[in-house]
């Protein structure tokens, strides 16, 4: 009911907005953003390792209970009614313990859900801060979460600002590690990126310029390498000629290479 009320309210709000002014709507995919966050990926891996250990403990306990049941079925004809009831009570007690352990680890209020919430909370705070900054800078009226309970039947990719949020978080982390001089250069670079985001045509032109620059630099490097090779070959030839002249001046003869002798023969 709450979901329906929210969607209805949103539709009414959008309709009212559209009658007076253009409405700018963006959306994010929180799951995508979390997967891109380095801190979340590492913490998630540690949590998955814990969950894997819990599952192993559950499987071990299940196998123990299974063996107890099989043993009871095999020995039932040899046991008194009192012994059968006693062992059945023991099995029921262990099944209850197993159920409680499963609920404690994987239940609706279990350790897995709680630790996931603790894990996600700091990154969610970063995301919400980044979203507020982007909304103010880009003048968005609404920003929705595609991965939430709100059903979005269609969403054009151009309205997806998830990558902008990821970039804002990464920028924040990088700034903390930069000196004042590096920070100034980084801010200039970020400003340039933001301008390109607002103007796709400008971004394409910049991309073309960067590609031309890279091709030009590559050509210059190739020409430089070719010049250096020619200079090296000339130096080598001059050195050989000088050696030859010195040998002739001193009345000695430089022995020919064995290959050259064979060719002379």
UniProtKB/TrEMBL annotation:
Superkingdom, taxonomy of origin: Bacteria
Biological process terms in GO annotation: protein stabilization
Cellular component per GO, a single term: cytosol
UniProt region (Disordered), positions on chain: 178-223, 241-265
Chain segments annotated as coiled-coil in the UniProt record: 44-89
Keywords: Coiled coil, Signal
Pfam family, one: OmpH
Signal recorded as keyword: yes
Keyword Signal on entry: yes
GO MF annotation list: unfolded protein binding
Stretches with biased composition (Basic and acidic residues): 178-194, 204-223
Family per record: Belongs to the Skp family.
Protein name: OmpH family outer membrane protein
Organism: Flavobacterium profundi
């Amino acid at each position: 009911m709450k979901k329906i009320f929210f969607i209805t309210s949103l539709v009414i709000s959008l309709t009212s907005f559209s009658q007076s002014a253009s409405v700018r709507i963006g959306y994010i995919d929180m799951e995508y953003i979390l997967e891109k966050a380095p801190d979340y990926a590492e913490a998630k891996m540690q949590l998955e390792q814990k969950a894997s250990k819990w599952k192993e403990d559950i499987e071990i306990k299940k196998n123990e209970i299974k063996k107890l049941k099989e043993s009871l079925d095999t020995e039932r004809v040899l046991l008194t009614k009192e012994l059968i009831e006693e062992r059945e009570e023991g099995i029921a007690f262990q099944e209850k313990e197993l159920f409680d352990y499963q609920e404690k680890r994987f239940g609706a209020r279990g350790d897995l859900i709680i630790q996931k919430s603790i894990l996600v909370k700091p990154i969610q705070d970063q995301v919400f801060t980044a979203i507020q900054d982007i909304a103010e800078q880009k003048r968005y009226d609404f920003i929705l979460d595609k991965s939430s309970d709100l059903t979005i039947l269609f969403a054009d990719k151009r309205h997806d600002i998830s990558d902008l949020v990821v970039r804002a978080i990464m920028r924040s982390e990088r700034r903390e590690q930069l000196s004042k001089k590096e920070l100034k250069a980084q801010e200039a670079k970020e400003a340039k990126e933001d301008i390109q985001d607002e103007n796709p045509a400008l971004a394409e032109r910049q991309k073309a310029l960067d590609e031309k620059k890279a091709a030009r630099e590559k050509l210059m490097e190739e020409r430089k390498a070719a010049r250096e090779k020619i200079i090296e070959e000339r130096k080598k030839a001059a050195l050989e000629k000088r050696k030859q002249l010195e040998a002739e001046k001193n009345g000695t003869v430089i022995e020919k290479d064995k290959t050259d002798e064979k060719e002379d023969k």
